[in-house]
Amino acid sequence: xxxxxxxxxxxxxxxxxxxxxxxxxxxxxxxxxxxxxxxxxxxxxxxxxxxxxxxxxxxxxxxxxxxxxxxxxxxxxxxxxxxxxxxxxxxxxxxxxxxxxxxxxxxxxxxxxxxxxxxxxxxxxxxxxxxxxxxxxxxxxxxxxxxxxxxxxxxxxxxxxxxxxxxxxxxxxxxxxxxxxxxxxxxxxxxxxx
Length: 194
Hints:
Helix content is 34%, strand content 21%. By secondary structure, the chain is α+β, with helices and mostly antiparallel strands. A hairpin with a 4-residue loop joins strand 8 (158-162) and strand 9 (167-173).
């Protein structure tokens, strides 16, 4: 067992994330934990912070992990944020050799006047996040941002895993057991033999 996900930490995180997830339920929401198996849509980002990783089409051949989050989301701060930081260390070699892209998309669907780009930049500095962070674009008059609509996310935190062919293999809302998902990511990083 991974020491980072000790039973006491896992219980605490599970209870905290379940109680604190920020949810928006849309009629088109995916079932949590569903193997999605559909083409990943392009994200629509108004601004990139730290770096611009490109878009899903330009990242063909790479495994992509997206953390859809909000800066004020307790589940994001207690679960998905630490999880991505852990994966950044665990998969450092695959990130360095360009096989794996970890990124975050700030997908604000509530508290628009509080969750500003200025506050997001302060949050990123405070949390020492060095991954690419995209600001999900809002169309005029729309409450839901564009990438959230395209990915049919149910709220925050939500993590999507896209394979080398640009297919969403997993999209999970809220807390989940990290180990099977880590194994899934690892299996996608192993080159296929012809």
